[in-house]
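Subject: for your reference before the review

Hello V.,

The reviewers asked for a structural picture of the protein, and I figured it would be easier to keep everything in one thread rather than splitting it across files. Below is the amino acid sequence we used in the manuscript, unchanged from the supplementary table.
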Amino acid sequence: EQMHAIIPAAELVLLMEEQGSFGGPPWNSSAVSLAWQDGVLYYGSGAGLQVMRAESNWQTLNDTLAVSGLASLGDDRLAVSAGGSLVLWSGVGQAISAIGESGEGSIDELVADGRGGFFYTVVVEEQTPVLKHWDPAGETRVTEFPVAGAGALGADGQTLLWTADGQLKVQTFAMDAEGGLSAQSTHAEVFM
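And here is what came back from the structure prediction:
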């Protein structure tokens, strides 16, 4: 089966003209993550967590976290990776609660599961990255699938797509109601 992509033309929207204008975050080449939730753009970087609301008004929510990843969980909540830590950010009262630590590795990618939980990878030097799932009840489950790089939730909300470790392909996984994964298959492959 061949896959084809049609990429629609879109008009770009200028968020800011220069670094720090509109009281915004310092845009730079450090690791950053963006998340969109309920009409609000969240921006995470080594300088913390910022938010842009209507009319390009920026606000710093937290300047102590060195944010490397964000995932929108709904209900005004974000999963945030900061170094080797995972925290849950609640816009209500701007509360931070610790979810867990990655142990020896670093947290590489966060992807919301569409059910209030998220998938993430833990990378330890010279080891295959581990894909884990955190559910809203606070349970963490480790999967057996070798993954690397980026992931995304499929448009159907029932499929997880993730790049394969050491291969030029994207894998798909069927997701059950609890966030468990099965039926690994190849979604797309690059031939060189």
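For the response letter, the relevant points are probably these. Residues 17-22 have pLDDT under 50 and may be disordered. DSSP finds no helices and 15 strands in the chain.

Happy to draft the paragraph if you're swamped.

O.
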